[in-house]
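Lab notebook, page 48
Experiment: co-folding of the full assembly
Goal: obtain a model of how the components sit together before planning crosslinking
Operator: M.T.
Materials (sequences as entered):
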Amino acid sequence: MLSSSMTLYLIFCCAFIILVWGALVPFRAGLLYNGTVYCMAVGGYFAAFAAKDLGWPFWLCILGAAVVGAILGFLPALGFSRTSGIVTAVASMALIFIIQSVIRNLDFLGGTRGIRGIPKIEHLLLYSVILVVVLGAFLYRLNHSKLGRALEAIGTDPDMATTLGINVKVMTVFSLTISSIFGAVSGAVYAFNMRTIYPETFGFSLLLSVMTMLFVGGRYTQWGVFISVPLLWGLPQWVPASINSFTQIIYGVILVVILMARPEGIITRELPGRIQHLFARSKEKGAGTV
Amino acid sequence: MKQNKLRIPALLLSMVLLLGLLAACGGGNDGGNGGSAGTTPPAGTTEPAGTPAGDQGGSGDGNAVAVTEWEIPMLTAATGAIAYVGKPAGWAAEYAAQIINENGGIRGVPVKITVLDTAFDTSKAVTQMTSVVDDALVVLGPMDAPGAESAGQVAFDGGVPNIAAYSFQDIRDLYAPYVMGYMTDSEEGDLAAVQEWTTVNDDIKKIVVFYTPTDASQAASTELLKAELPNSGIEVVGTVEVQTGQLDCSASVIQALNMKADGYFLGLRADEAAKVLTELRKRGVDEGRRICATFASFDANYFDVAGSDCEDTYVWNKLDPNYDNPEWQALVEAYKAGNDGQIPTAPPVPGFYDAVMCVKQGIEELELTGAPDKLEEERAALAAWLYDSPEFDGIQGPFRWAAGKKVADVHFFQITGGQPVAVK
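Observation: model returned without errors.
Model output:
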C-alpha cells in the first residue's frame, strides 16, 4: 500500500513524463517547442472546468482535454510551420504568457485565484500509469514509423528532407499538434492530482523544469524521462529537510554535470540499442547452454 | 523479430513496475532520509515500547500524553521569490517552540517545529502537505495564499487543522472547520487604511491604485477599494498594473500621473512599491502624505531602496514593530541577534508565533494526547476549537478566530525621520 505522498509523487511523475514526451516530439524535427506548457495549461483548465462545473467523468475529461489541446495547438502550429529553430522557441514561449493572461481575465476559470475543488478521482495513479503506457506505446510506434523517420530527417536537415519528398510544413504542424495533445493530457492529470489549478503554475519555471528533464534524461530517446523525471521532480522529497533550501543548487549541479559528462543526456541514442543487443546476446548464450 | 519488437514495451513496463516497487519501499520507511516519509513528521514521536506513560499529563490517566515530543510541521517558502518573508515565518514558529520548551513544553512534553520548504510553488506545497497530513495533529503554513489554497484541499481531505494563509472567506468556508488564517484579511486592511489615510488628509478625494494583477489578494483589494471607497466620498480614478520583478516603473508612474489624482495607493510588494514610490517622488509628487502603501510594502527592502523618498508617506501593517509588550520586545531582540540587527516587519512573524502558542493552549485545554489511535478525534476537536476560538493574548495584542478568520487590530503609520510612527 503506497502512502498518499508517494501516490501523489508518482502521479506527478506520470504527468511530467507525458509532458516531457510532448516536448520530445517536435525536438525530433529540430524544433525547441515551448508550446507544450501552453497546452498543459489548456488541458489542465479544460479538465478542471469539465470535471467540476460540467460533472464530466475522468476519461471524458482526458479525451476532451486532448481534443481541445489538439485544436488549440494546431492553430498556432500553422504559423510555426513557417518558422524554424530558435524562432520557434522564442515565438512559442509567447504562447505561455498569452494563455496566462487569458486565464487570469476569464472569471469562469477563476481568474488569478484559479479553480479549486476539482473532484477527487479514485485510482488516479492507475489511470495515470495507463496513460503513460498508452502514450508511451504510441510514441514508440511513431518514432519507429515512416512519420518518425521523416521527423528525424527534418531534424537532421530540412533541405535534405525536402529533397526526399517530405513535406516539412505538414510534418511540423503534425509534430506540434501531437506535442500539444501530450501537453494537454499531462495538464489534465496534473489538475486532477493537484485538485486546484492556477495560471501562475504554467510559467517560465515550469518550462525550465521541463527542458531540464528533457536534457538530463536524454533528448533523443523517449526512455530518458523515466530517470530524469523521478529524479528531478522527487529531489525536494528525497533530500533531508536541513538541505532542502539548496535544492535549486543541486538541480543546477545535476544539469551541468550531466550535460558535461553526457551531452546527449543520461540515455543516449545508442543506449537502448546496446541494451537490446545485450538482452539478445544473453538470450543466445542461454539458448546455447540448453 | 516479433519478439524483438516486444522487448522495448516490456522494458518500459518493467521500469514502471520497478518505479512503483521502489516507491512502495520508500513510502513505508519512517526513518532516515531515504524517502518522503523520512521527512514526515508525525503528530508526536510515540513513546518507545516498554517506556512507562510517565507523569506527563497524569500517569495512568486516559488523557495522558502519549508522545515524547510534539512535532508540528511548518510549510513555508524558505526559498523562492518570497523567501524574505518565508524564512522569518519559519524562524518565528521555531522561536515560539523554543520559548515553550524553556517553559516546560506542552503538557510536559517538548515541541519541535519541522520546517518544510514549499519554494513558493503550489505543487511543492501540495506535495509537502501530503507528506505530513497522515500523521500530523496540526499543520502550520503554507504562508502564501496560492500555496495555502492548494494545500488546504489536502488538509481538509485529511481532516487536519491547518493555520495558513487563508485570506479569503470563501476558501475558509470551503475547507471549514479545518483552516484558519494566520493573519487578518488584507483586503479589509487596505480598505481601512485608505479610509484612515483620506480622513487624516481630507483633501485627497481621487486616488490611483497600483497593484500586481497576478497577485489574487492585490487584485481583490483593488476591486474592494473601487467598490467601497465611493461610499466614503473617495473615487478610484484609475488602476495601474505593476508586474512582479518589474525593473523600470517609470511608464507605470507616468500613466498614474496622467490620471490627475490627489493620492496614490501602492498595493504592491516591497520591491515594486519602492520603485514606484521613487519614481513618483522623482516625477513631481513632492508631498509624501499623498502616498500610502499596503502592508506588503512594509519591509526593510522598501525603506532601504526608497530611502528619504519615504518621508511623510503612509503605510499600514498587520504588526507594529515597536509594539510595547515584553514578549514582543524579547522576540525582536532574538530576531535581531539572528538577522544582522534587522527588526521583524513581516506579518508571518507574529502570525506563526501566535499560531504555535494557540496550538499549545489548545492541546492543554482540550487535554490532547497525541496518541495515534485518537488522532482523528483530537484533530477534529482542535480544529473546532481553533476555527471559532476564544480570545487569545497574542504577541501583538488580543485576537481570535471567527469562522477561521483572524480578527485583530491593524496598525497605520506615517514615516517620520525615516521611522514608521504609529498614526492610529
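Interpretation: Chain B touches chain A through 56 residues (CB under 8 Å).
Next step: discuss with group before ordering constructs.
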